[in-house]
Amino acid sequence: MLLVLALIQGVSEFLPISSDGHLTLAQHLMGFEGANLAVDVALHLGTLAAVLVVFRRDLVSIVRRFLGGEWREPLLLVLGSVPAALVGLGLKEQLEPLFASGRIAAAGLLVTAGFLALGERARRRALDVAGANTGRPIDWKDALVIGSAQAFAILPGVSRSGTTIATALLRGVDATAAARFSFLLSIPAVAGAVLLEVPDLVHAGGFGRDLALAVVLTFVVGVLALRVLLAWLGRGAFRWCALYCAGVGVLGLVLL
């Protein structure tokens, strides 16, 4: 059952269909009552490793430019990370009970479908106007708005990648640049979430071989899913993901 959850996490973390929404629904439907904290940490470690591998060249380039005195992109990433950090730290206890509700996760998937539909509409409109997948670079206002969207996506069922990329598209950012910034922005968010849970995990006894295998599976599937999204983002991927999220959201509300 852990491997099923790892597979779900790997696919749904990077495709814009909400990993936490799918995990919540899956745990309700399968009656999973394992060590939820350990599972959460393990699966997020796998997806964090996937982002680091896929964007390793970008990260090395950012570090080199930063050391050379070019601080613009690191500062944009820091600015974009602030809203989620404030919400995650300030409302952690209030938000945690929401993840126990399958119906809330299903409703969040419907919200995700709406964001994806709006993002795809903005992308197509930009193509009609410019005739190519072009847009302006991200500025500090974009970073703050996209970061606020990431904070909103802490809610169960609301896709982090879908919400942030769609928000960037609605602001006129190029689709490739929007996806790149979204996934780079996920690194401090996911790493921070894992670090917050490590003390509780250590106190609970850590995790063993099965969860280590789940980390590996999440990583492998996550790398594949991330590459698929980056390749198909400009080919209408959001439209199909929106329809999928809407269908799963409605089904979840009916079954739970």
Describe the structure.
This protein has helices at 2-14, 19-30, 36-54, 56-67, 72-90, 92-95, 102-130, 140-152, 160-170, 175-203, 209-232, 237-255. By secondary structure, the chain is an all-alpha fold. It has 12 helices and no strands. The protein has one domain (2-255). The model has no long low-confidence stretch (mean pLDDT 85). 80% of the residues lie in helices and 0% in strands. It starts with a helix and ends with a helix.
Number of strands: 0
Q: Output the structural class.
A: mainly alpha
What level of helicity do the residues show?
over 70%
How many strands, which pairing sense, and closed or not: the largest β-sheet?
A: none
Integer average pLDDT: 85
**What is the number of independent domains?**
1
Rg on CA atoms, Å: 18 Å
Beta-strand portion reads under 5%
| Cα distance spanning the termini | 20 Å
**SSE order, as H and E?**
HHHHHHHHHHHH
Overall shape: globular
Task: Tell me the number of helical segments per DSSP (H or I, 4 or more residues long).
Answer: 12
- List low-confidence stretches: none
Quick synopsis:
Helix content is 80%, strand content 0%. The protein has 256 residues and is mainly alpha-helical.
